[in-house]
Amino acid sequence: MLLAERIEELTTFFVDQKKRTGGNRAQDSAEKWATILARRELGDSLQAIAKDMDLRYDTAKTYCKLARRALREQGD
């Protein structure tokens, strides 16, 4: 329950940060970033997250890094 709420909160934040919000691409990207970041916050490993989401490890790592940067820049 807590994970789902955090994913929804982060997804909304990331969609708002996107410059082009038309279509499904921005929503899909925001959902991936939110899912990866929320699971990392709960302590899941990037390898497990990548496997569950059928992503390469490098891709999951990059998405996590970009998501953290977006949150950090919002706080500035």
Features:
mainly alpha, globular, 4 helices, 76 residues, 79% helix
Structure description:
The protein has a domain at 24-76. 79% of the residues lie in helices and 0% in strands. The chain has helices at residues 2-17, 25-41, 46-53, 57-75. By secondary structure, the protein is mostly helical. The N and C termini lie far apart (29 Å). It is globular, with a radius of gyration of 12 Å. The longest helix is centred in the C-terminal third of the chain and has 19 residues, at 57-75.
Topology diagram in text:
Layout: H1 2-17, H2 25-41, H3 46-53, H4 57-75
Helix pairs in contact: 1-2, 2-4, 3-4
Describe the structure concisely.
By secondary structure, the protein is mainly alpha-helical.
